[in-house]
Amino acid sequence: MSTALVNGPPFSLVQAGVSVNGLMDASAEKVGFIGRVNWAGTGSSKAIRRVVTRLGAVTAGTATFRVSLQDVDTSAGPPGVPDGTPDQTWTTATSGLTANTVLETGDLSADRTVSRGDLVAVVFDYSAFTSGASVIVNTLPAPFANAFPSAVLYTASWAALANTLPEVAFIFSDGTRGTLEGSCLISNTSAADYNNATTSTASLDSGDERGTKWVPTRPGSITALQGVIRVAGATSDFELCLYRDTTLLETVVVEANMVVASGTYAWFRVPLDTAVRFSASENIYLTVKPTTANNVRIMAIDFHAAGDLAFVFTGAAVSWAERADAGSRDVNTGASLRVTALFPMGTFDEEIAAGSYALSGTVTNAAVGVTGATVTVIDRTTGLTKQATTDGSGDWTMSVESNAADRYAAYAEYENGGTKYQALAPWALTAA
Question: Model-level pTM?
Answer without folding.
Answer: 0.71
